[in-house]
Structure prediction request, 129 residues.
Amino acid sequence: MFTVQQIDEAHSKVKSGAEFPAYIQEIKTFGVKSFETFVSDGHTDYHGDQDYRTSSDPLYAPLVIAQHTNAEQFSKDLKNHQQGGTDFFTFCADCAKSGIEKWIVDLDKMTCIYYDQSGQEILTEQIPS
Prediction:
C-alpha cells in the first residue's frame, strides 16, 4: 500500500496547475483511488483498494469556512491558483472565504469536485490525463 510520504514526494514536483495531471498519474501508480482534501486545516484522506485509507497531518491552523458560498469568487480564485498565482495555503484561505469546505479527486473518473459545508457540489472539473 501507499504512504503519505510517497504522495508528498510526488506532490513536491508540482509547482503550478500545469504539473497537476502528471502528479495525478504518478499517485495512481501507487494505488491511490481517490483523495479528499479539507480546507479547514489542509489535511487529506487518501483512499485505495480494499478500504485502505491513510491521512496526512494538518498543514496549518484551522480556517473558518464561510457559511455562504460565493461560487463566482471561488471560480476566479481557482483559475488564479491553477495559473500559478497563489500558493496552496492562499488558495485554501480563498476557498474558506468562498465557503468551500473540501474537494474530492476521483482518480478513476479523473474528476475534482468542490463542495460547500452542506455537501452541495459547487464545481466539477475534469482532470486532463
